[in-house]
Specification:
Largest interface: A-B, 97 and 98 residues
Oligomer: homodimer
Number of strands of chain A: 9
Order of helices and strands of chain A: EHEHEEHHEHEEEHEHHHHHH
Strand content of chain A: 5-15%
Number of domains of chain A: 2
CATH superfamily of the largest domain in chain A: NAD(P)-binding Rossmann-like Domain
Shape of chain A: elongated
Structural class of chain A: alpha/beta
Strand order of the largest sheet of chain A: 3-2-1-4-5-6
CATH architecture of the largest domain in chain A: 3-Layer(aba) Sandwich
């Protein structure tokens, strides 16, 4: 027996701005629940492909498509969120609830709380290696965190609607301060990109600085451990740059903390303090399960 | 139709010293090919469990079990390889080919080339998160590199026999100098452990130094990217310590190189050089596939 569909969100048609990985996935889940989804995209080619993929009820390059929507999700890259085009601002229905999906929250909240009275800053934490109009897939948010960072003047009814949206697509709802969110994601998401990219570059550069067979050898011997440790460092360069740019203070603080930990480990090796190194690695082994949900 | 078994290696019974992940897996593959496998293990409880798991033709805590073997594989941890017990040295048949499976080669080769005339230093690069007598599994070496690091005085016939062993269990055979091997594994295997452990410790320490909700938040928000980047840092502490201890010069050189790359990335963030950061991350994204076999 099929499960009964969840009741529709009390907002009428839902607008989505941008149909990349996050916007497209959200649209698919909302359509599957019986919602009307109206999507505004920038490029005609995106509109055509989104229509072919049946990502939304209506897809248009005309911002007027958002008219009548009671909830609009801004599924845009951080730079476009922070410098929203005038035609976007003009097209947002004044009474609608507006939310975003950006991975850094303090600057987005600071920018948008003056732009729209019912803005809710939020961050669904789901992703794949894919991007663009082909990337959206059903069920992306299931079991993943969806964090909102309300301010003191955030409309509580608007916040509830965004929570209902997150729960409708199966996400785990959390709220916290925007600054705390940005510090946390600097540690567990943005710092790993830099740590991992530096490892790839080290294997390349130090290999090239050695005997002529070394570059081939490091490539031939790299195994699943190296592949795992470097996965996020080999990810989307544009996204990695935007995260560091929009969250630079927290990223620099995380890097400073990281340097201290690495210094300590290096000191163990330099001094031949093998008992100390073993204790450090035992602590790491005990820490890791705490970070796996 | 079943595939015809490979011809037996021309060495008579094969001895294996230690039945952990590598020794146990090798024993299973050799038994499956019709070889007689004689295993010497340290603890009676290991011998009993190995017999129950049918890991070898004969398992004993008496080194005399190695008598008559034409090939002996020392599947021991690095510290025991570097300080081999006298009863092991006494039990190795003088005419047999001896090889090891240690993940650092220069010190093992330096120690053993004076201990046995037919020693071949080698390193099958396969692993799982498991260790001990329960860990061995069939097919572990299939498609994985098996590196030998012959010296000028390594017996070429002995080297050929170890190559035949590696190929019998489906590994990819490579040879290189011991120092080059150790530099390569420092970059792609030992450095990642430290880089990854430091990341876990940073997420823990910097979370704890923040507002009271931060430690819970970093744990709740850590996702698959953090899990991947920290996998090897949460691995076996004993193994990580032995690698750093036995390969400390190459590990320190790799750490120095890593620090330069991380400094460069940090400088980009500090100076707001977003074009430069994007170029660095684009380069990383292009580098990574070169390291994935």
């Amino acid at each position: 027996m099929a499960e009964a569909p969840a009741p529709l969100l009390p907002c009428g048609p839902i607008g989505i701005v941008g149909l990349g990985l996050i916007g497209g996935s959200l649209a698919l889940d909302l359509l599957a629940q019986g919602h009307t989804v109206r999507a505004w995209v920038h490029r005609p080619s995106t509109a055509q492909r989104a229509s072919e993929r049946h990502l939304a009820t209506e897809v248009s390059t005309d911002p007027g498509v958002l008219e009548g929507c009671g909830l609009v999700v801004l599924a845009l890259p951080l730079d476009r969120l922070l410098e929203p085009p005038a035609e976007l601002l003009a097209a947002l229905p004044p009474g609608a609830v507006i939310t975003d999906v950006g991975s850094v929250k303090a600057p987005v909240l600071a920018r948008w709380r003056g732009l729209h009275p019912r803005f809710v800053a939020s961050h669904p934490m789901a992703g794949t290696a894919q991007a663009g109009v082909e990337a959206g897939l059903a069920g992306l948010f299931s079991g993943r965190p969806w964090v909102a960072t309300p301010a003191s003047d955030t409309d509580p009814v608007a916040l509830d609607l965004v929570r209902a949206l997150a729960e409708l697509v199966g996400a785990r709802w959390l709220t916290c301060g925007a600054a705390e969110h940005d510090r946390a994601v600097a540690l567990i998401s943005h710092l790993p990109v830099l740590v991992s990219a530096a490892l790839l570059q080290t294997a390349d550069r130090c290999g090239a600085a050695g005997p002529s067979e070394l570059p081939g050898l490091v490539r031939a011997l790299a195994s699943s451990g190296f592949a795992d440790t470097t996965r996020v460092g080999g990810g989307n360069p544009e996204l990695g740059t935007l995260m560091a740019r929009c969250n630079h203070d927290a990223v620099l603080a995380a890097l400073a903390g990281y340097r201290r930990q690495l210094d300590d480990l290096e000191q163990r090796v330099r001094q031949g303090d093998w008992d100390g190194l073993r204790q450090d690695l035992e602590e790491s082994a005990q820490l890791r399960p705490q970070f796996l949900s």
